[in-house]
Amino acid sequence: MTKVALLDYGVGNLYSVANALKVAGADVITTDRADDIQKADKILLPGVGAMRDAMAHMAEHGIDTAVKEALNTKPVMAICVGMQAMFDVSEEGNVPCLGIIPGTVRRFDDAWMQNNEPIKIPHVGWNRVDADTDHMLWQGCNHEYFYFTHSYYCDPVPNDQLILAHTTYGQKFCSSVIWDNLFITQFHPEKSHRAGLKLLSNFINWQP
């Protein structure tokens, strides 16, 4: 059974993520210990709340270093604020992030329109995710609806190495990236029922 280290750095809905991973078929350990992370087959970085707090907690627990080291040897997945942390900088407090993927985390523009009305911020609820790829991570769950709750979105620098998925909320924005052995999602698979469990199962079985 694939062992997934769920990284605990003081932010994140750990119980629901751990439970969803177990249902999807993983052996889960919730940890911030370097030896646990090294022994795991795969890593999952959750995240909720403000980016400044998230980055401070990562540094305090050594999770920033652990994620970068893990990316050298094993698949890593990151969710919501975990996804945003992979970029260069966030407009939420102008916080420097991990700088793994070039780009900026931007706030939704309240001038964007949806159904002839200004969008509501934060973006909360179900929305479709479309990936223009046949990558195995999206098999059985592409073009499905996933659950979102966020006020900021990721704006990657165009790069042929990135496999992107998009969602429309007022305008089209990036809602997932696959890059080498890194898989990140703005939405919450653990809250997305069948499609979310299928996506997590694909990650558990993924061999980049």
TrEMBL record:
Domain Glutamine amidotransferase: 6-203
UniProt xrefs under Pfam families: GATase
Primary location group: cytoplasm
Gene3D superfamilies tied to this protein: 3.40.50.880
Molecular-function annotations in GO: glutaminase activity; imidazoleglycerol-phosphate synthase activity; lyase activity
Domain of life: Bacteria
Subunit structure: Heterodimer of HisH and HisF.
Annotated HAMAP family: HisH
Function: IGPS catalyzes the conversion of PRFAR and glutamine to IGP, AICAR and glutamate. The HisH subunit catalyzes the hydrolysis of glutamine to glutamate and ammonia as part of the synthesis of IGP and AICAR. The resulting ammonia molecule is channeled to the active site of HisF.
Protein name (database record): Imidazole glycerol phosphate synthase subunit HisH
Organism per entry: Moraxella catarrhalis (Branhamella catarrhalis)
